[in-house]
Amino acid sequence: MPENGETAPLLGEGIPNLARTGNLERETPADRRRRLATIRAVVYTVLTVVFVVALASVLFLWDKITGVVGHLPKDPEKAALYILNNAPVIDGHIDLPILVRSAFANNISAIDLEKPFAGHVDIPRLRKGKVGGFFWSVYTDCPHAGSEGEDFLNATWSVRDTLEQIDIARLLVQKYPNTFAWTLKSSDIKAAIGRGQIASLLGVEGGHQLGNSIQVLRTYYDLGVRYVTLTHACHNAFADSCGIFEDPKPYHGGLSKLGYALIDEMNRIGMLVDLSHTSDATAKQAIKYSKAPVIWSHSSARAVHDVPRNVPDDILKFIGFGQGQTDAVVMVNFAPFFVAEPGKADVKAVADHVDHIAKVAGKRHVGLGSDFDGIGEVPVGLEDVSKYPALVAELYRRGWNAFDLAGVTGGNLLRVMEGAERVAAQMQKAGIPPAATKYDKRTDL
Ligand SMILES: [Zn+2]
């Protein structure tokens, strides 16, 4: 074996050693043929490798590659997961605390949310459904007929029960610190999602839960509540309700004087005005009057399914960024009796509501407010919190793009919250004092 590199062939048998020969022009025709054959072989090898990699990419890595460069997979289910991984669901209304009250007498020690849990919500299903946050509804029933007395004056027990509901929600958030994050501002929600946690906020579902007191509103805010639904299914001292299936006879004709004062104070402190459950007159007056963007935390479209709990087109038209319009988000309710005729509620029917609200109010004004754990029945294909991807996939199939879908899943709500936070900051900077408005029917003050 030659040891001397100078004399051994350095580039393989028969390949001229250019370091030694120094000049290609001196090669023989046979050397030249061999050299060109070698170059051809190398080029063909490289091209073959490139082709195989490209083919493998197309066949096996297409979704990943297109995702990275900003295009979505063609498969709607895969596209939905890609969107939700980047823009998870922030649900406007989940009733877990009332389930804990009714089924476990407020004892959270009896509950393990890390295992399959009764109802529609537990941690494994929240994770599977790509949930990045939700409003824990802290709800108490409307007073039974007559129990609150004339002018709603005896309904103060509702404040006690609401405080108990707030306690349940807070304790459950604390019980799972790796999963849930207590959030108070839109920036907190984004930060929690960034850490992989589920942002947790509170929503009070009815003005009757305020005990006729604007001071209670401020106290709820301090406890973490970020929206108050002006009414539940009953009229109260602040506003008229739409009832459940039949519009009841109006009491105030929309907002009362106290109701207007309530909205002023909600705007000032940054509490979102929620118009689900309100009468049409209440909603029209409130959306016109509120300085801050408003929400419907769990309502669908009346033009798609005609029940009073759904939002009619003549109110959807007040929503927007134009003249005479207010920014808002209508978060679509999944309750089958609000979605479609009996037996017809499914993913497509819910998507019809999203589509309709988007068509009339705009894609930037629709969101999701499932009402999970507050509804006995569920739509086919949207049985619990693990199923949001099916709805996103259905909308994608209908031509919604990633940007608009990210708005539906949570972005639109965040924008509305930011708007309300801005208005509150401006009003507080302007020195507007806390409201001291008293319910004029009260005799104790
Ligand atoms: Zn409700």
From TrEMBL:
It is an enzyme of class 3 (hydrolase). One of its GO terms (molecular function) is metallodipeptidase activity. Its EC number is 3.4.13.19. GO terms for biological process: proteolysis. Its cofactor is Zn(2+). Belongs to the metallo-dependent hydrolases superfamily. Peptidase M19 family. It catalyses: an L-aminoacyl-L-amino acid + H2O = 2 an L-alpha-amino acid. Keywords: Dipeptidase, Hydrolase, Membrane, Metal-binding, Metalloprotease, Protease, Transmembrane, Transmembrane helix, Zinc. SUPFAM superfamilies: Metallo-dependent hydrolases. This is Dipeptidase. Pfam families: Peptidase_M19 (PF01244). PANTHER family: DIPEPTIDASE, MICROSOMAL DIPEPTIDASE. The chain crosses the membrane at residues 41-62. PROSITE patterns: RENAL_DIPEPTIDASE_1, RENAL_DIPEPTIDASE_2.
